[in-house]
Amino acid sequence: MFNAKLSPDGSKFAYQIIDDDRIRIAVFDAETRQAIKTVDLGKGAPVAWFRWAGNDRVLFSLHSRAMLLLTFVPATRLMLHDLVKDETSFVGLDDQGFKGDDVLYVDPAGEFVLLSLKDKAFSQPSVYRFDLDGKGATSARIVQKRTLGIEQWWTDNTGVVRLGMKRQGSKRVSFFYRSNAAQELVEVAKLRREADAFDNWDVLSIRAGSDTGYALVKDERGLNILREFNYRTSMPGEEIFAHPEWGLESAVFENDGTLQAANFTDDFPNVYWFDPDMAAIQDKLERTLKTGQVQILSSSGSDRMLVSHSAGDDPGVVYIYTPARNKLDVFGELRPDIDFKQLTAPQSIEYPARDGTRIRGYLTLPKGRAPTALPLIIMPHGGPYGIRDTASYRDEVQLLANRGYAILQPNYRGSGGYGEKFEDLGNGQIGRMMQDDLDDAMDWAVAQGFADPDRVCLVGASYGGYASLWGVTRNPERYRCAASWAGVTDFEAQVGFDRGFFTRRNNKKWQRRVQGDEPDFKLGLVSPLQQIGMLTRPILLAHGKRDRTVPFSQFTMMSDAAKTAEVDITELVLDDAGHSFSKVEDEQKWYDALIAFLARTNPSDVNVAKPADISKEGDSKTGAQVPSDGAEISTDATPETIITEPDLAG
């Protein structure tokens, strides 16, 4: 269930599902928990987000690519589905710029939306009002003309355009502000992007009738805290909330602009409630459900809520909670076919890197086996920058633990969630110190006695796939094998590909991230593709042909290079898969290939290849499915109603 959301009145809820490569939004009656209808968004349609507009309309953003000066660039369109009319329509201009989903304000009744749009690719945006009547451009009218070179707009919580930002070259910006609709916009700040004061303009909310709003700013620890900010004077105000250990990620506001909550992640996604009623409800839910992680996914005030209850060893249950009744109604159990007795909880760990940097991560041990001298899978996360792993439930981790492996997920330097300083330690360290952190994770696991040093493999996706391929290439004395899904094989080519998806500023920022303080450093020196001659260990190289993030060419280049170098690799190509899986069948093929590959190259006591499968090690391609002695873990994500409905504690 992706992004489950309640309608404003709490009568319905919707969530995104992927079924047979088609993306749909399923709508349910919150009272009866019965399906109302399913909105089909098309085959493979990349949906960035969806949200309610009133109680009978749903807005959603579709991503695509458009041609600009012989180069493909990302493009978005805003779409509307009217549940009463059962009609889907486009919201926007007949001729508009590439970004079509910059929604500034949605009328609470769902009658109209304010949208920042360019009428040409290289113009500045105006703010348009579109009636949500299915008539598209014919209902458009300008509420704020483009002016002063402003390229980004903000409104307050009533839909009044209050703030704009103008770029002054690549290094400076100006902000223009007004206190109400009757005033003219005036310049209130001019500053460099690199200045600390720029953080104050991370606009979270502007309140009607006030010059004060909220911003996430970094403190001396490099962690995000929540502060008030006066937009008229450009002065930061009172510190509202700072977590003692973790940076804040976002804030939640009610329709009237009242601050409701701040979100952060420790080992799990978490929340701090400013609203005392919501804090009391959170506490009651946690006392009732006792163990695990309780999240209020969506709420209609305090009348009705969607609640998730899960843990690292529990895929979770989604409830519908109506506080006035003091009872939880079960909507669905996630992964209902899995035997929870087969699952095992990740442990939070910390170890020193070779330069003394403290690295945190998660260790998952196979159930029912002595935690000594186990075959180890090091699983670096994707990203790499600003992303991190948590202790939340993951199919892949539980599958490998079920097959007898210990799994270690290091949040190497550059990962998000630990502050700006830690994230910046990763600048320029792709394939170098970020890779060292993975090696140091292995040394820690061996020193603790968990891992057999002769049975260690790397498995990852996206950047994690790159780190896996490079690790086994760079250090064959450490690792027996590596498996990559949608991994980058050559960062020089990937940086070139990424240029088509970034603005000029963000492209330079990304290049600085990758290159660090050594602009002359050759990424080819840390390229699995360009260093293919060093590869002496078996690898599984898997990719989807429809990947728009790490293009399929990353796979074909590596495959061709391996053939030229006469290096045998195992390959898996999925015709309909993108950067992630849109079909359960494709995800199952990846798991089958991974388990079979590990059975041949790094067997555990329960994941051992049959003689016929061992002979396939030199094959260039295989999709062999190897039955294991462990209990199978299903990847079927179809919600299923369960019977038990607990009464709430007082």
UniProtKB/TrEMBL annotation:
Coiled coil: none annotated. Residues 609-650 are annotated as: Disordered. Pfam families: Peptidase_S9. GO terms for biological process: proteolysis. Transmembrane segments: none annotated. One of its GO terms (molecular function) is serine-type endopeptidase activity. InterPro entries: AB_hydrolase_fold (IPR029058), Peptidase_S9_cat (IPR001375). SUPFAM superfamilies: alpha/beta-Hydrolases, DPP6 N-terminal domain-like. Residues 392-600 form the Peptidase S9 prolyl oligopeptidase catalytic domain. Keywords: Hydrolase. This is Prolyl oligopeptidase family serine peptidase. It comes from Pontixanthobacter gangjinensis.
